[in-house]
Write a structure and sequence with these properties.
Layout (H helix, E strand, L loop, with lengths): L4 E6 L8 E5 L5 E4 L6 H4 L16 H7 L9 E3 L1 H10 L3 E6 L5 H4 L2 H9 L9 H10 L4 E8 L5 H15 L3 E6 H6 L7 E4 L3 E7 L5 E7 L2 H17 L1 E2 H10 L2
Parallel strand pairs: 5-6, 6-7
Antiparallel strand pairs: 1-2, 2-3, 4-10, 5-8, 7-11, 8-9, 9-10
Length: about 250
């Protein structure tokens, strides 16, 4: 079975070696770097078995990028506590959406309207709209990148229509083709990043219902999510441009 490797970070200043990866399933850590080649150095190593290779990495690489606590318990918050994060963030709230559908969307009147007419009559005065509008009015940034399949799923097209409403609230919404996201090695995780200091990973059941949220404050993990944000944001395009190109291709 192919490992699901996740890039944690590099201590090379950006050249990519040495680096640390983590097996997302087993938790095992993979380190690669320049090999130790001097026979006199190798002779000092204990328990180096046949086929094994010793690599040289700076100490700070392990300090900065290897998991700090393999037994860390996930901190799970309920949806009310999650909603409160949108009231308390100070500067920025950034979202990556990677899913093909959300069960909660499909239970709404607007979704039924969209299925029937190709668009929806969006309510801009509900509690979420009031909250986001009040935050962006203070100069706070609310941004998101939505990953889209080719061809887009019905749920993704629905959210592309929804972007008109959320943009009017002051959100900056951009889209990225899944093929481009795969090339960038973006993870299949839905999360919010608040003030570049904590991440909220959204957890769904097998029927695509949002169940709860994992709150992540471990510095190395927050940095990893920040790197994901920077890559996705750099390559994504404003939803208006994305929608126009999608319509032109039909």
């Amino acid at each position: 079975m192919v490992r699901q490797l996740r890039f944690n970070g590099t201590g090379s200043g950006g050249t990519g070696c040495p680096s640390v990866h983590e097996d997302a399933e087993s938790g095992e850590v993979i380190v690669h770097g320049p090999p130790l080649t001097d026979p006199a150095d190798i002779a000092q190593l204990q328990h180096l078995s046949e086929g094994e290779v010793a690599v040289v990495v700076p100490r700070e690489l392990l300090v900065d990028w290897t998991p700090k606590d393999a037994t860390r318990q996930a901190r799970i918050i309920d949806l009310d506590e999650f909603e409160n994060l949108f009231r308390t963030f100070k500067h920025s709230a950034w979202r990556l959406e990677t899913r093909r559908r959300f069960a909660s969307d499909e239970a709404t009147d607007t979704y039924r309207q969209f299925i029937e007419t190709g668009t929806a009559d969006w309510d801009t005065e509900d509690p979420y709209c009031d909250l986001i509008r009040s935050q962006t009015a203070q100069g706070k940034r609310v941004e998101r990148v939505r990953i889209v399949d080719s061809p887009p799923t019905t749920g993704q097209l629905y959210l592309l229509d929804n972007a008109k409403r959320n943009s009017g609230l002051g959100e900056d919404i951009r889209n990225l083709w899944r093929s481009d996201a795969d090339q960038l090695q973006l993870p299949s995780e839905d999360f919010w990043l608040f003030d570049s200091r904590l991440a909220a990973k959204l957890r769904f059941d097998e029927d695509d219902n949002l169940v709860d949220v994992e709150l992540i404050t471990e510095p190395a993990e927050v940095v990893r999510y920040s790197v994901i944000r920077d890559a996705a944001w750099h390559h994504a395009v404003p939803y208006e441009e994305f929608a126009a190109k999608l319509n032109d291709s039909k």
